[in-house]
Please model this.
Amino acid sequence: MLKVGVLGAGHLGKIHLRLLQQSEKYELVGFYDENADYAEKIAAEFGYKRFPTIATLIHAVDVIDIVTPTLSHYKCARVAIKSGKHIFVEKPISNTVEEAEEIIALAKEHNVKGQVGHVERFNPAFIAVKNMIENPMFIETHRLAEFNPRGTDVPVVLDLMIHDIDAILSVVKSKVKNINASGVSVISDTPDIANARLEFENGCVANLTASRISLKNMRKSRFFQKDAYISVDFLEKKCEVVKMKDAPETPGDFDMILQNAEGVKKQIYFANPEVESNNAILDELETFADAINQNTTPIVTLEHGTEALRVAYQIIDCFKK
Model:
């Protein structure tokens, strides 16, 4: 079993601690949190071993799980990697693209593996349809959240939209060619609602909307491609696949047939992929353990996390124009 330590015991850090303690692929050694009084409380309440410094925790483990505020991701990753430890780092990978690129370079130099916590890649609804998403040419995403003061220190693009940016980049096998975006600050000092249009070199267009001042929560993505429409509800963990094929010469009584202006007939049918229940956070942590043990490439690499961050900042730059 890989020995793992957690940096940061806030809301998400506590979830990671609980799941790592349950995991059969890790041995949870302990955690470090810079708030000593809070760390003592967590240690007393849950029985996790509290380490007095980052250095002592890093020395005791094989893997460091970085669940600290984004501003400290780079500093924590740098220390861990230079100590020869594998790193799992929550999204976004770092505060700047330059920091992210240095994390990649350090990981290569010290021959350690890294994974970024883009948890929606492990959402069971997305997993169920990902292999059916082939060359999508139009994508629409809505990620809306009710207001929560936690997270308003960063633009909504880095807080929420980056999930969809990463998911889109994982299925569109082409480079981003052009970006247009607008954002509005309503409650926070940074934009609370944003819309972005990504144009790819292969002609694909993605329209992304994110808001943290919505009256209801929504996390939906729709993928349109030749002869198919695929919908993913990340919140409800449901998916829908609508496909078209050439209509049979003698359609059945219940076949759904469409005919275009040229007289071409298509049959519509529905595929219902099985969505297998899972714990996405546990899965992302355990697949990282598999990548380390089997010396394979992590599912969400440091490069993937960096590219999502790069596009996110290109969107944010559009707000300033």
